[in-house]
Amino acid sequence: MSAKKESFLLNRIKSVGWAFKGAWLLLRTEASIQIQFFIATVVTIAGFYFDISKTEWLFQVTMIGLVMSIEGINTSIEYIADFIHPEFHNSIGRIKDVAAGAVFIASIAAIIVAAIIYLPKLF
């Protein structure tokens, strides 16, 4: 006898719950995401202060989401790599470096977007 299949809606609700749990865990335990969250808060306050345009908000929110999402993926890759091979290994180090590099690239792009939005308002 097979188990009763859960409804599509119930599965989606559970998925959102697990995603929220993961985001909360990331924010609560990872220093890098905490720093990025702080920066996101500062630029959000700056956005209200400088009354940035709707288009500027779209770029800002997109970059915040991009950087924080890639940081979450980077953290997941680090956890998986450490689980698979807890001791130091050159290949694992390379995997972690590449994942961190992805965060770095997204962060540089976010800094450029922030400069384009805020430097003209400051000077």
UniProtKB/TrEMBL annotation:
Its main location: membrane. A divalent metal cation binds at E30, E78. Mn(2+), Zn(2+), Cd(2+) and Co(2+) support activity to lesser extents. Keywords: ATP-binding, Cell membrane, Kinase, Lipid biosynthesis, Lipid metabolism, Magnesium, Membrane, Metal-binding, Nucleotide-binding, Phospholipid biosynthesis, Phospholipid metabolism, Transferase, Transmembrane, Transmembrane helix. Substrate binds at R12, E71. It is a multi-pass membrane protein. The chain crosses the membrane at residues 31-51, 98-119. InterPro entries: DAGK (IPR000829), DAGK_sf (IPR036945), UDPK (IPR033717). The keyword Phosphoprotein does not apply. Coiled coil: none annotated. It is found in: Cell membrane. Pfam families: DAGK_prokar. The active site is at E71. One of its GO terms (molecular function) is metal ion binding. GO terms for biological process: phospholipid biosynthetic process. Its cofactor is Mg(2+). GO terms for cellular component: plasma membrane. ATP binds at R12, E30, E78, E87, F88, H89, K96, D97. Belongs to the bacterial diacylglycerol kinase family. This is Diacylglycerol kinase (ATP). It comes from Gelidibacter sediminis.
